[in-house]
Amino acid sequence: MVSHKEFVGAGKTPGLQVWRIENLDLKPVPKALHGSFYTGDAYLLLFTTSAPSYNIHMWLGDECSQDESGAVAIFATQLDDFLGGGPVQYREVQNFESNTLVGYFRSGIKYQKGGVASGFQHVVTNDMNVKRLLHIKGRRAIRATEVDMSWSNFNKGDCFIIDLGKDVYQWCGSQCNRFERLKASQVAIDIRDNERNGRAKLHMVEEGEEPAAVIEALGPKSTIAPGTDDEKVDTSNRKKGALYMISDASGAMKVSAVAPSSPFKQAMLSAEECYILDNGVDRNIFVWKGPKANMSERKAAMSAGQQFIKDKGYSNKTQIQVLPAGAETTLFKQFFIDWKDKDETTGPSKAYTIGRIAKVEQVPFDVGLFENGAMAPVDPSAYGHFYGGDCYLILYSYRLGGREQHIIYTWQGLRCSQDELAASAFLTVKLDDSMGGSPVQVRVTQGQEPPHLMSLFAGKPMIIHSGGTSSKGGQSQTSSTRLFHIRQSSSRATRAVEVEASASSLNTNDVFVLKSPKAVFVWRGMGASDEEMAAAKHVVGFLGGSAAQVSERKEPGGYDFWSALGGKKDYQTSKSLQNVVRLPRLFGCSNKTGRLAVEEVPGDFNQSDLATDDVMILDTWDQIFLWVGNDANAVERNGAPKIAKDYVDSDPSGRRGLPITTIKQGAEPPTFAGWFQAWDPKMWETDPLARVFGRV
């Protein structure tokens, strides 16, 4: 087996690793610059979960050479071999990336001009001599594309970032709506925190109110063009698929038809063969590798998919996913009417992918708490506990290629003060300076914790307290009754979040720990996992006392579980959570571009992905929810029900007659809110844009 020296550290810790093809070799991209791609280059990406399981992506820029695209394909195959043939492989093309890849970069993907051949390097520096213009596109999948510094590239319907090094200006067109402004601000904050190591200043600029520095950089302002109607790809993949078998029995790779159109039956897939599921009309091709197929067929899976695209005359922008048995994605499984996973015990909030077990080394790290504008060390016994009224700094160190590397996480609670927010930003820069400016900086807002941060605490869950502080002498009195919601994410990291102590907060898919003045309960929902129950022990250990285990529908009487929660109330009890492994999917319905379009939210979604100026579709497999934002316009409100019906009627798995429930913002029932961990009913009381810029 051929093994590259860069593979030595591949897949050893959860999270993302990125390499660029340079002179037909692999060169690692600094973590602070992940999500930034040169359009003239090719990249190899590896995402590792805590399980561990793996996703391999080869990304091709519009202007990358044939040699570079060939080299990244070879390295992807070698990396797949190195990881035992278990990873899911993706072929990604600029501007047409999979939702899986886009989901890694919550603050968006940035495309930069040039590449290796032009002498452009991925280097994190404190150099403020920057001058560039980024065009921000997308409401769910955010893409920031570098364009020429000219007013001729602006339009009234989009946001642009004028990056002048020490000052970063977010320019908003007069036709740009609040949600697009919110998403563009994530890109601007990412530039400040990661590319400038927190040293740049952000400015919000409205069209017609440009400051002198912007006029000086761009020259005299010319007429701004009106907003444009984006070319939209229907990412819901509703169209039919066809199934083919791949065989090299004759000595050459051949493709033969198995079924002309979906829905398919799982029995059509033989463990001894490899198959292509053709969804090319929606720019998707899936190659499924049977566990007993011969080695030559398995290794040729990606190249067989590429040849299939050519033979069919499909666009070269078509995505390819190569799937080993047991690691099938939601997009693949949706074409089968009777799909059953190997271990169907928990619900669709769990993503099951099978990877070989590898030891993930836990490296010592330090946690600091901000008190009165200064940093105080946190007792190691309290590692993993985060209070909503505090800000924390976590310094994580690891060795890569024989050198010590560092990541600084700055965690900001939702109830911390403006002074603490300012102090956290200042002290993060100060710590970075003391270490020579080399650490990667990651700013984390409560509820948005990345998988790597959640996995740091030696097998214990990350425990998030709704408010209060851990500073000495500053603790506020905690409530006499407290409820913690425990859920394992799709990357297998576990988080315990304090929620309102009410029965309506419960969820049949998860575990909850309830502490009242008289008792401690561990409540296990019918769809909960053993890992979530194990995490509950750590929460009980912190709260103190001996816990009584309570199973859903077998709650005790007397002064019981329900009394402590203020009585029985409706909560999320969808039966689909208990028996079928199906990931829920969230879509936005928007006519902001002039026509009603549907776009899927990439990655693990959360409550903040509900755009208040849109109508959203939540597909939980046995039910469809239509969520209507308060600021959605009449076209979206009136057109969304038909889109939801069309979505079901054209479903490739053959689902029909599903109930469609319409819900208005601010009146979400438990059956809807339960699909979002730690749902906050008070979130809508403050403007999301004000929340973001209040934290800048």
TrEMBL record:
GO BP terms: actin filament severing; actin polymerization or depolymerization; barbed-end actin filament capping; cell projection assembly; central nervous system development
Main location: other
UniProt entry tagged with the keyword tRNA-binding: no
Key word Transcription present: no
UniProt GO cellular component terms: actin cytoskeleton; lamellipodium; melanosome; nucleus; ruffle
SUPFAM superfamilies: Actin depolymerizing proteins
UniProt GO molecular function: actin filament binding; phosphatidylinositol-4,5-bisphosphate binding
Keyword entries, A-Z: Acetylation, Actin capping, Actin-binding, Calcium, Cell projection, Cytoplasm, Cytoskeleton, Nucleus, Phosphoprotein, Repeat
SMART domains: GEL
Domain Gelsolin-like residue range list: 26-101, 142-214, 258-332, 375-454, 494-536, 598-672
Pfam families: Gelsolin (PF00626)
Subcellular localization, as worded in the UniProt entry: Cell projection, Lamellipodium; Cell projection, Ruffle; Cytoplasm, Cytoskeleton; Melanosome
Family: Belongs to the villin/gelsolin family.
Oligomeric form and interacting partners: Interacts with NUP62. Interacts with NUTF2 and RAN; involved in CAPG nuclear import.
PANTHER family, sorted: SCINDERIN LIKE A-RELATED, VILLIN
Protein name: Macrophage-capping protein
Organism: Scophthalmus maximus
